[in-house]
Amino acid sequence: MLRRLIQTLAITAALSIGVACHARETPAIGDINVTALPPEAQQTLRLISRGGPFPYRKDGVVFQNRERRLPPRERGCYREYTVPTPGENDRGARRIVTSCDGDNFYTSDHYRSFRRIRP
């Protein structure tokens, strides 16, 4: 009986460690060179580096990474900015997300996928 309990605890611990490690894995993120970004994204990057002014009220708000498609960071580390889409009447799907550690990410499909922006 004691042996079975120890085996159960060992298996439970091993599974817990596996789940914890899996949760910390960095999602696959491609790269994109800044010169390959659409001109509107390049302009948004310039606005970010200058600190604004930004054309959309929600620019600079915390991006919560609910989809977990970006590397895990502490809450408040990510900020999102709209990349205007010609012909759209609203904010469209394109965004740049900045991180507190200096990385910038581009999404053209409203957070379904990201590419790290390279200089």
3D structure, described in words:
This protein has a single domain (29-118), classed as Microbial ribonucleases (Nuclear Transport Factor 2, Chain: A, Roll), CATH 3.10.450.30. 29% of the residues lie in helices and 18% in strands. The chain contains 2 helices and 6 strands; from the N terminus they run αβαβββββ. The protein has helices at 2-23, 39-50, and strands spanning 30-33, 61-62, 79-82, 95-98, 104-107, 115-118. A 6-stranded mixed sheet has the order 1-6-5-4-3-2, with helices on one face. Residues 1-22 form the signal peptide. This is Ribonuclease. Keywords: Hydrolase, Nuclease, Signal. It holds the Pfam family Ribonuclease.
Tag the structure with descriptive keywords.
Ribonuclease, signal, 6-stranded mixed sheet, nuclease, hydrolase, alpha+beta, Nuclear Transport Factor 2, Chain: A, 119 residues, 6 strands
Q: In the CATH classification, which architecture applies?
A: Roll
Write down the Rg. 20 Å
The first-level CATH class is given as: Alpha Beta
Helix residue percentage: 25-40%
Structural class: alpha+beta
SSE pattern: HEHEEEEE
CATH superfamily: Microbial ribonucleases
3D shape: globular
Tell me the number of structural domains: 1
- Beta-strand content: 15-25%
CATH topological fold name? Nuclear Transport Factor 2, Chain: A
Give me the side-by-side strand order of the main sheet: 1-6-5-4-3-2
* Uncertain ranges: 12-25
Spatial separation of the terminal alpha carbons: 62 Å
- The total of helices stands at 2
